[in-house]
Amino acid sequence: MTKPSFGWVITPAARDAAAAHTLMEDNRRFIDRVRGTFEMLWVEDHFQWATRPTLECWTTLTFLAARYPEFVLGPLVLGQSYRNPALTAKMFATLHWLTGGRMVAGIGAGWKGDEYEAYGWQYPAARVRIEQLEDAVQIIRSMWSQSPATFEGKHYTIRDAHCEPRPDPPPPLLIAGAGEKRTLRVVARHADWMNVGFRDVETFARKLKALEAHCEEFGRDYRSIKKTYFGFLLVTEDGAKPEPRPDLHIIHGTPEKVAEELNRFKDLGVEHFMLRFTDFPHLAGLDLFLEKVLPEL
Questions:
Q1: How many domains does the chain have?
Q2: CB contact set of 246 (below 8 Å; sequence gap of 6+)
Q3: Is the pTM of this model over 0.85?
Q4: pLDDT in tens, 95-131
Q5: CATH number reported for the structural domain that contains residue 92 in this entry
């Protein structure tokens, strides 16, 4: 079985105002550690976590693209509501072109309701946001392949929109989300890559079964969609447990236990892991991963 690839998920939010001054230096130390081992850098798309200083996703991606030319980059993932989908298509095309083809276009329906309210966006029901997501990815695809592009969807419309220089080849389109009835249906129709995070192995397997069923409905080859997993890790010699989080499955334990769980995800077909370590900004967990977990995957 082919070895999976790995991406480091940048930590864009500092613990407090004092930690903000060292936030990018802390991330730099992690990036320097994974050079030559990890292939990608990912940035989440959020604007606030209460009062914690938080870096905006696209600005941070542009900075990282210039500073680290050896990495492929992507948002994990852009909330479709936060930017007009035609603008999103243009932003992806431009940065993909400027970086020589180093982008993965990650997008999702959006979920953080407090952020929508704080920044003045409407926060419709999940069903509507998923419909908007499907419109958005079709607009993005059409603008990357046609010039000019016209699309009339249920929620978003473009007319004679140009996106030059168009990306050739275009970046892979990653759609994140775990909703079995609607979101994974959009993934089956439109995505090159899928992403589900923070679930245990059994739940992840169920999501893949749902995706496979949608692919069969649309006549899509399930194997053509690249499977990815976003995981939080706590790796310790003594197998310490993290603070319980009912909304977040944390892969934790000794290096042997962590490797065993990651291999179960790999056996389900995961080809790329996006990782964040819960002991950030300390390097102990990452060092254990690189030394004792990675060789077992």
A1: 1
A2: none
A3: yes
A4: 999 999 999 999 999 999 999 999 999 999 999 999 9
A5: 3.20.20.30
